[in-house]
Amino acid sequence: MPITLTVPEGLLSPEAQAQAFAGLTDAVLDVAGLTGNAFMTANVIGTINVLPAGHILAAGKPVAAALIELKLPEIALATAEAKRAFIEKATDVVEQAAEGRIKREYIWSNIVYAPEGAWGIAGRSYSNADLIGAIQEAAAAQVSQGLLTA
């Protein structure tokens, strides 16, 4: 589940960038009900793009803004409620990390879905059923090791 956070220079310190990315990771796992799942936790990846000041625009003018993009297989966060919950949590995370240097209305989020079979990890194409199986296998292994409760 790649996350891309794009911000202008000076909006977030390196520490705040790391804090924001960790918070976005937690948000997607929480909303998906997969907090602690070893397979999913290891596969929430992403990038932080820091653009030169003035390279993020709103209404054609430079603005202190943040863009959050989450790419998912089509089975993830499938309900409107789940999408809303992630977007709200993600916005909160970035707003807090910016410590007042950004207005909430300048934090934009979008969720992009990969079609069935177009999700790849380590060179393997996963169908939706494959992904569910891998998530369930990880959970079962963690339960048997006492790392998660059933």
How would you characterize the overall build of this protein?
This protein is of the alpha/beta class. Helices cover 40% and strands 25% of the residues. The chain has four helices and eight strands; from the N terminus they run E-H-H-E-E-E-E-H-E-E-E-H. Strands 2-1-5-6 form a four-stranded mixed sheet, with helices on one face. It has a two-stranded antiparallel ribbon with strand order 3-4. Strands 7-8 form a two-stranded antiparallel ribbon. A hairpin with a 2-residue loop joins strand 7 and strand 8. Helix 1 packs antiparallel against helix 3. The two termini are 24 Å apart. The mean pLDDT is 90.
Structure, briefly:
The chain is an alpha/beta fold and 150 residues long. The chain contains four helices and eight strands; from the N terminus they run βααββββαβββα. The longest helix has 19 residues, at 14-32.
Descriptive terms for the model:
four-stranded mixed beta sheet; about 40% helix; alpha/beta; about 150 residues; elongated; two-stranded antiparallel ribbon
How far apart are the termini?
Answer: 24 Å
Largest sheet: 4 strands, mixed
Query: Which structural class should the secondary elements be placed in?
Result: alpha/beta
- The average pLDDT score comes to 90
**Quick one: how many beta strands?**
8
Spatial sequence of strands, sheet with the most strands: 2-1-5-6
Low-pLDDT residue intervals, each spanning 5 or more residues: none
Layout of strands and helices, then pairs:
Elements: E1 3-8, H1 14-32, H2 38-42, E2 46-51, E3 57-58, E4 61-62, E5 66-73, H3 80-98, E6 107-114, E7 119-121, E8 124-126, H4 128-144
Parallel strand pairs: 1-2, 5-6
Antiparallel strand pairs: 1-5, 3-4, 7-8
